[in-house]
Amino acid sequence: MAKAVRFYETGGPEVLRWENAEVGEPGPGEVRIRHGAVGLNFADTYFRTGLYPAALPAGMGVEAAGVVEAVGTGVSHVREGDRVTYTGSPLGAYSTERVMPAEHLITLPGGIAFETAASMTMRGLTSAYLLRRIVALDAGDTVLLHAAAGGVGSIVTQWANLLGINVIGTVSSDAKAEIARANGCAHVIVYTRENVPARVREITDGVGVPVVFDSIGASTFATSLDSLARRGLLVCFGTASGPIPPIDAMSLAVKGSLFVTRPALADYIADPAERAELAGEVFGHVAAGRIRIDINQRYELADAVTAHRDLEAGASIGTSVFTL
């Protein structure tokens, strides 16, 4: 019988339940998919804690890869037997199989394993819109990237190197600094013992960087602003330490006519053509070996509670995935 992780109330990892699940036949515009691997993302914890709203009881997870087993009427871009991956609502990826809207599915290129796809679809598409849609960056530019040893950080750094962009990465430990350097960071700042804005100014001859990519949120917002060059852009694309504080518009003027944006992946993959273009680019790099996807932690789906505890404790390094 199919199994799934569900939660009936918001709270800590302990609210997650591993239970039997009924999976019916797909309706119009839907498919039934059997998962080969399931993604584990920090954003999953936002739904569990209630930071992101979800109608309870709810499934968990938005990313997985597997095989299409049945197709409902009106579905034409995938067929039974296709290898696919996806990221996006509705919740329910933490499952062995499910029925879901077909519109989210991306055909998986040959040579990319389910574990690789499930661990990189959200991170890869996020990296794609950060580097290819948010702002025009030129070879030789230098950017600041928080959480450089993380899943998105690893892909962004490697991709930036392909584009000739220099990355200053921040990490919390020497072990993570080694990972960031291996991914191609030109400079690494261990923020637990170094002053990030001061180091950025030192590296950039006092100018600052034109762009900061910040997935941390509350604890890094001020240092991110202070690391920007005049008319620089802060891209807040995550809130691992909590939501960013209210923005004082006048402070942006005082600090150098700065810009701040809070993008969401959903708005960059809503259009099927744009999603296909971004997916084609990132999966193309991975399939060709130009971008490496390292999976550092593997969990059984039944161990979702442990996985969430590790994630929130900062015990995970880089990319994690659920195996089936």
Give keywords.
quinone reductase (NADPH) activity, globular, 7-stranded mixed beta sheet, GroES-like_sf, Rossmann fold, oxidoreductase, EC 1.6.5.5, Quinone Oxidoreductase, Chain A, domain 1, alpha/beta, single chain
Per-chain topology:
Layout: E1 3-7, E2 16-20, E3 30-39, H1 42-49, E4 58-59, E5 63-71, E6 83-87, E7 97-101, E8 106-107, H2 114-134, E9 142-145, H3 151-162, E10 166-171, H4 174-183, E11 187-190, H5 196-203, E12 209-214, H6 221-226, E13 228-236, H7 249-254, E14 259-261, H8 266-269, H9 272-287, E15 295-300, H10 304-313, E16 319-323
Parallel strand pairs: 9-10, 9-12, 10-11, 12-13, 13-14, 15-16
Antiparallel strand pairs: 1-2, 1-4, 3-5, 3-7, 3-16, 5-6, 6-8
Commentary on this structure:
The protein is an alpha/beta fold. The chain folds into 2 domains: 3-121 and 270-323, Alpha-Beta Complex (Quinone Oxidoreductase, Chain A, domain 1); 139-261, NAD(P)-binding Rossmann-like Domain (Rossmann fold), CATH 3.40.50. 31% of the residues lie in helices and 27% in strands. It has 10 helices and 16 strands. The protein has helices at residues 42-49, 114-134, 151-162, 174-183, 196-203, 221-226, 249-254, 266-269, 272-287, 304-313, and strands at 3-7, 16-20, 30-39, 58-59, 63-71, 83-87, 97-101, 106-107, 142-145, 166-171, 187-190, 209-214, 228-236, 259-261, 295-300, 319-323. Strands 3, 5, 6, 7, 8, 15 and 16 form a 7-stranded mixed beta sheet that branches. A 6-stranded parallel beta sheet has the order 11-10-9-12-13-14, with helices on both faces. Helix 6 links the parallel strand 12 (209-214) and strand 13. Helix 2 (114-134) crosses helix 3 (151-162). It is globular and about 60 Å long. The mean pLDDT is 95.
